[in-house]
Write a structure and sequence with these properties.
Elements (H helix, E strand, L loop, with lengths): L1 H4 L3 H19 L6 H34 L6 H22 L5 H8 L1 H27 L3
Length: 139
Amino acid sequence: MLRRINQALPELLLGILIFGLVVQVTGVWFVEDRARYISGLWIGIVLAMGMAVNMAVVILDTVEAMAEQRSSRKASLYGALRYFLVVLAFVIVGYFNLGNVVVMFVGVMGLKVSAYLQPLTHKLITTIQDRRFHDKLPS
């Protein structure tokens, strides 16, 4: 289903998850409050994944609106709403001390890291799929 929204979206989400796992495994040993570190990181990762899905849907809607030659202010509205909700999540996490907001920011930045590494992720996934396909072929 995600691939119908945007071809690169599943790979982007996978990259965000891998980024989250790498940051957790490497960073958890260097902090005193591991629970807040982990909760802040994964709240940020979930936000990044939600932002990625939202952006993909908004891009799809905007392209469809342009194809039908109608104005789409929805993209601007959803962009502003997306960032408002992210800021609100930071305020809530910080106010209620639900997680480390600095690490939460690192988790949200997983969206950027994953976007930059998406071509590499695509190549890796394609290579793995090709190997599986060739292994299943009768000799």
